[in-house]
Design goal:
- By secondary structure, the protein is an alpha/beta fold.
- The protein has 3 domains: 103 residues, Alpha-D-Glucose-1,6-Bisphosphate, subunit A, domain 3 (Alpha-D-Glucose-1,6-Bisphosphate, Chain A, domain 3, 3-Layer(aba) Sandwich), CATH 3.40.120; 73 residues, Alpha-D-Glucose-1,6-Bisphosphate, subunit A, domain 3 (Alpha-D-Glucose-1,6-Bisphosphate, Chain A, domain 3); 87 residues, TATA-Binding Protein (2-Layer Sandwich), CATH 3.30.310.50.
- The chain contains 11 helices and 15 strands.
- The strands form 3 sheets. It has a 6-stranded antiparallel sheet, covered by helices on one side. Strands 2-1-3-4-5 form a 5-stranded mixed sheet, sandwiched between helices.
- It is globular and about 60 Å long.
- The protein starts with a helix and ends with a helix.
Length: 307
């Protein structure tokens, strides 16, 4: 039933006809034997790594993040795969490696798949967490659909899916699902839909992204984590209670308190602070138009914590 549902959602014929070669890395986890079996059955070439049982996950965290996907990159080179899809241990998060071996950030994956889902004619809204790229906000305006910005946590997006209020929902920590599907993160679905996008449009994800930037402007985001002493944490937590009007010379256009404190500046860049309730750290999310501006914003965001 599970595989049958995936066949309904993902256009496997398009992937097969395009001759797309795929590499898959389940990171020794729960996704072993699922997307590779589905793709092979449809006549699509797929190569796998880490597709055997290892309760220690190779001695490392089963996270589909950039530094942990080197074996997948090697397999892509060996097999000339045009895309690599990976899932974490319980298969709810995704990781995407593109044709040139680059890791494709989840923020960009969500934005591109939102664009793909829109092509299916669904005019429901789109859901995203407050810490997820504001490219989604811009795309929602571009497609004239309602934006739902939620606190961090996929359960909020899940409720929007259950209520049929959104066509797609995602968060920057590599969680995504779509309309008429499970109201929970689904890493396999995200990976397979990326395969469909590359096959359907005959372009790499990188090329897709550049075309999207040309339509709605460029976005560059990152997430950082800073440890806090008890003294700094108390002081900074108090600081977060007030609404600042300026941030190191940047005028603040909007203060968002969906989750933590998010400051949106006049040029569209933003920074979001979330103090952990379980460990002495603050998570900082920031986004700007390019890498140079992001570096400046990141430096200011860190300075604001410890000044």
């Amino acid at each position: 039933m599970y595989l049958s549902r995936l066949r309904e959602i993902v256009d496997l014929d398009v992937i097969r006809k395009a001759g797309l070669r795929v590499a898959f890395d389940p990171l020794w986890g729960a996704a072993r034997g699922y997307p590779d079996a589905l793709l092979k059955e449809a006549g699509i070439e797929v190569a796998t790594v880490h597709d055997f049982r290892d309760v220690l996950f190779g001695g490392r965290a089963p996270e589909p993040d950039d530094p942990l996907l080197e074996d997948q990159r090697t397999k892509m080179c060996e097999t000339k795969a045009r895309i690599g899809i990976a899932t974490d241990g319980d298969a709810d998060r995704f990781g995407i490696v593109v044709e040139d071996g680059s890791f494709f950030p989840p923020n960009y994956v969500i934005a591109l798949l939102f664009d793909l889902v829109e092509s299916r004619g669904w005019k429901n809204g789109v859901g995203k967490s407050a810490a997820t790229t504001n490219m989604i906000n811009t795309l929602a305006k571009h497609h004239k659909v309602e934006l739902h910005e939620t606190p961090v946590g996929f359960k909020y997006i899940g409720e929007l899916i259950k209520g049929d209020k959104i066509a797609i929902g995602g968060q920057e920590s590599a969680g995504l699902s779509i309309r008429h599907h499970v109201p929970e993160k689904h890493g396999l679905l995200a990976g397979l839909m990326c395969c469909e996008m590359v096959a359907r449009r005959g372009k790499t994800l990188g090329k897709h992204l550049q075309e999207l930037f040309a339509k709605v402007g460029s976005f560059c985001a990152q997430r950082e984590k800073f440890p806090l002493t008890a003294e700094v944490k108390d002081k900074f937590t108090g600081k977060l209670q007030s609404d600042p009007h300026e941030f190191f010379g940047r005028k603040i256009r909007e203060v968002v308190r969906k989750d933590g404190l998010k400051l949106v500046f006049e040029d569209g860049s933003w920074v979001c602070y979330r103090v952990s309730g379980t460990e002495p750290v603050v998570r900082v999310y920031s986004e700007a138009a390019n890498a140079s501006e992001l570096t400046k914003l990141s430096s200011a965001a860190k300075q604001w914590i410890f000044e």
